[in-house]
Structures are given as structure tokens and as C-alpha cells.
Amino acid sequence: MLSSMPLANVYAGGSDVIKIALIGCGDRGTGAAFQALATKQNLKLVAMADAFQDRLDKSYKLLTSKHADKVAVPEDKKFIGFEGYKKAIAEADVVLLATPPGFRPIHFEEAVKQNKHVFMEKPVATDSPGIRKVLAAAEEAKRKKLNVVVGLQRRYQESYRETIKRIKQGAIGDIVGGQVYWNSGGVWVRPRTPGQTEMEYQMRNWFYFNWLCGDHIVEQHVHNIDVANWVKGSYPIEAYGAGSRFLRTGKDHGEIYDNHSIEFLYEDGTVIFSQCRHFQGAQNRVDESFQGTKGKAYLSAKNTGKLWDSKGGLLFEHDGKGNPNPYQTEHDELFAAVAAGQFKFADAEYGAKSTLTGLMGRYASYSGKVIKWDEALNSEINLQPERYAWDAKPKILPGPDGYYPHAIPGKTVVV
Ligand SMILES: NC(=O)c1ccc[n+]([C@@H]2O[C@H](COP(=O)([O-])OP(=O)(O)OC[C@H]3O[C@@H](n4cnc5c(N)ncnc54)[C@H](O)[C@@H]3O)[C@@H](O)[C@H]2O)c1
């Protein structure tokens, strides 16, 4: 526990119903709301906000079908569009932030400003100014004793907690190298529809645009990158690597790359190799391996955690049978702390720094250059549009041929 006794006007425990607002009612947001409502605490979902009516309606229907008694969202507490988040946040004690990550900095900043406890999905930003906003709000959240849980659920998974605890106790010596992967087949495309504005098209296809998604090295691979930072207990000082649009090159595929391979160098000389790619039909791999001066480690989200000595003898194997779902554990632990009036979670700083590590990797593959931590942190390149509205123009637009411009190593300026 970090400390007790939150400030006045922060939900501080007791028998009152804990009120929740969901901002971003898509797949993960709806899942997170299910998990919040499945905790043992006395709570109610009281407000919802989404950019799109159809996404909010679908989420509301799903949530009421299972938790009719805990969903109390009247029509005037369902907020549609870009500005609804402020009103939804005002209704709640705890907010669940699960929009595409480009909006996370402004949503998190607003939640902290309004003194709310937060569950927010990873990643927490898509550009460096966004990271700095989250870091500043993270400090403010600590000052106000607001619990903040970030959806890097490996931090809440028993196999990771037990295995990494032993690594930190020295079971395999000092960590000197590692490899982290998110190699999978990729995600959906939602075809352009007649009459759609460019903003609506990009919002429906957010994965393919950096201002919304950050590229998959940030959006997905942040999970494995965060494990590397957790195991090392620090953040890399520089990144160097390569990436490209190799197989996924269509007009439907926005600007993101389909592969990145990066070396992250830590201050003590440790190199962590990171690879993420979206190649359908190729060998998938999502896991983390580490080498220490006295042995090695292997972890994966399939409840696997193993340690070996330097001769290959098994030192430890986590028994994953019956382990709780880490997505549920995040909410069980967060809401238990909130209900008890305890300040226990301050995940936003490591969430932001691991997101920045992913960004540093993207900057390295897009530019082909060595990118230093401070350059990544201090970059003034802001990917967000001038304003958020359906008729506003995103900064990235398709050319006359319908293809979006994308980064070219050796030419593109990234910091
Ligand atoms: N921890 C995990 O394992 C995990 C898994 C999946 C997704 N996620 C994260 O969850 C987030 C959401 O992903 P998803 O798969 O649910 O996407 P999604 O497209 O299903 O949902 C996003 C929702 O946010 C809404 N939205 C977009 N901009 C908004 C705005 N400005 N205000 C309000 N609503 C807005 C969209 O309309 C949509 O309903 C992402 O950050 C993603 O990385 C995490």
C-alpha cells in the first residue's frame, strides 16, 4: 500500500455505492466494465461515453444482459461524440478509460483533474507530447492519492509476478540480455463507407493511424516491452533497429508498418531484442525470454514462467493451474482498494515509460537512426489534429492515389 487517507472529495471508501463511468465502449472497454461489475464491491455503472452511438448501444445491451442490476445509465448519461468524456467522468468515482490510446492523455488528465480513481488501458499515448501529459497527470494523481491501474495485465498475472519476483531475488543472477516478441497475424479493416468523413474513417480504422494507435509496436508490443522494463527495473537509454511495410501495404492499411525489429540498450549494457510483426500464416510468437549471469528465464501470457540455472537445470516452474484471469485481478485489486479507502496503485508512470519505450522503438524503425531516451521523451512532434470533430482534418491524409504516406527510414524526421 502506498498510503491511506485520500484527499477530500476523492471517493474514500465506506458503504456508499462506487459509481463507475466507461469512456470508450468498444471491445476492451465493455470487457473492462464486465470485469469491474464482477468484483465483490458494491458498485454501479452510471455513465457511458463513446464517439459512436452504435458502439455505445452495443456495449450497453451486452452489459445490461448480464448485469441489469448494476447498470444504471439513463439516456441522459449516455454521451456521444468527442466531448462526452468530461460529463461522463463527472458522474463517477472511478473511470474506465478504453478509447484508442491517442485520446488517453486528455482523458486521463481530465479524470485526475476531477479527482477520480482510474483504470486505463494500455498504451497511454501515441506521441511524446502525450507521454509528457500522462507523466504530469501521474504525478498529480499520486499527490491526490488517486488509485491508477493501467491495463498491462501481465503485472497482475500470477505467473509473471511469481517468476519475476524470483528473478529480482537473484535466482538467475543479473539480467544481461533478453528477447521479447509480439508476432501475430494482425487486425481488422473496416471498409470506407459512402458519405463518411476522413475523420470518421480514421476513427473506425484507428489501428492503422499513428495519432490514434501509435503503430502496433506501441499498441500491442508494449505488453512485452513492459515486461522487459519490469525485469530490468529500468528503461532503455537508446533504441536502434529496422521495420517496414512489407506485406500489408494497401490503401486500407493507413500508415503503420507491419514489422519492427529493435535493439533496446539499457544503461548497464544489457541489450533486449524486440520484434513485432503482423504476417498472416507465418509462425506466431508472443513471449519474453531473459538471460542472466547465472541462468535464464522464459515467460508467456499462457500462465508460463520458468527459470533454469546456467547448466539448463530447472530452478522454478510456475504452476498455472486455476490461476485467476489477470484482466479480472486488475479490477478485483483496484476496486478492493477503492472500497477500503486505500491508495495502493500508481501504475501511470511505468505505463507511460513503457509506452515511451515502444514509441522510441517506432522512432528508431521509422527513422533508421539511433534514438536516445531523452530525444524520444522531449520530442515536440504532436500527431494530434488541431481539433476533434467529425469535419476536422487529421494531419495524415491519403494522397491522390488513395494511399497514405508512411515513414521512410533515412528520410523521415521523428523527433
Ligand atoms: N490489455 C489488453 O490486453 C488489451 C486488449 C485489447 C485492447 N486493449 C486496448 O484497449 C483500447 C481499446 O481497444 P479496443 O480493442 O476496445 O478498440 P475498439 O475499437 O473496440 O474500442 C474503442 C472504442 O472507443 C471509442 N472511441 C474512440 N474515440 C473516442 C473518444 N474520443 N471518446 C469516446 N469514445 C471513443 C470507439 O468508438 C470504440 O467504441 C486500446 O488502447 C487497446 O490497446 C487492451
Span between termini: 38 Å
What is the strand arrangement across the widest sheet? 15-14-13-12-8-11-10-9-17
SSE ordering: EEHEHEHEHEHEHEHHHEEEEEEEHEHEH
Q: Rough shape? A: globular
Largest sheet: 9 strands, mixed
Oligomeric nature of the chains: single chain
Radius of gyration: 21 Å
Helix content: 25-40%
Structural class: alpha/beta
Instruction: Give the beta-strand count.
Output: 17
Describe the structure in your own words:
The chain is α/β, with parallel strands linked by helices. Helices cover 32% and strands 22% of the residues. The chain has a 9-stranded mixed beta sheet. Strands 4-3-2-5-6-7 form a 6-stranded parallel beta sheet, with helices on both faces. β3, α2 and β4 form a beta-alpha-beta unit. α9 crosses α11 (348-367). It is globular, with a radius of gyration of 21 Å. The mean pLDDT is 96. Residues 23-29, 49-52, 55, 82, 85, 98-101, 103, 121-122, 151, 153, 203, 219 line the site of nicotinamide-adenine-dinucleotide (NAD).
